[in-house]
Amino acid sequence: MPQVYTINITMTPETVMFLSSNGFVLYGFKAVKTTNQGAAPLVWFQTSSILLNTQVTWAEQYLAYLSTSPITPNGTIAVSSAVAINLGQTAVVGQDGHLTAIAQGTPSAISLSSASFQQWTSGIALPGPDQQPSPLVALPLSGDGIKIIAPIEKVLLLFAQTTFGAGTVSYKSYAPGILVDLTGASQRNVSYNTNSGWNSGGGAWATPVAAQQDLIPILVNPGS
Asked: What does the DSSP assignment read for the chain?
């Protein structure tokens, strides 16, 4: 069975009412690590379903995806095809644009390779609530070499009044947020208040993220 992760967000009734009545949306971004210079972070999910106890849950079930959408600021990456893939495997794009997962790859990472020099946008995704791919990162892919992406169990959460959908290319944080590290843990508990912001109870696994902060060093190549 794949590892399942959960972040529990608790809020007061006053906070929930303020967020809901003022059109705030909960945004989630998930971190990866890649040295590809053209890689861009994407909105993993957004939801207007804001409850006193809101859960963000996902399983370690990855997909490699392919798209013809260009990587542009605030542009949306539309998935055209995807294939289930495990860590240590490689997703190969054939001449017909069909993705195939093969056993050879880099341990603890997902590799992407193309048999042609046609320009693609590619990356890794997680299944959404409707089981459709929800991309985490976008990078250019052609026949110029293998791209390697290592998923990291870090999630950025924030509330904002913007209307960007899942798959949106986002280089800056829309609002103050919290980066939650689940490395070595399956669950974390945080709270949010409109007056005081995010709170992790002093947990060293949480890092505040400022509004308009650059997301590349946080979500695409953290630690590099």
From this structure: ---EEEEEEE--HHHHHHHHHTT-EEEEEEEEE---TT-EEB--EEE----SEEEEEEES-EEEEEE-----TT-B----EEEEE-TT-EEEE-TTS-EEEES---TTSEEEEESS---EEEEEEEE-TTSSEEE-EEEEESSS--EEEEEEEEEEEEEES----TTBB-SB-SS-EEEEE-TT-SEEEEEEETTTEEE-TT-TTEEEE-TT-BSIIIIISTT-
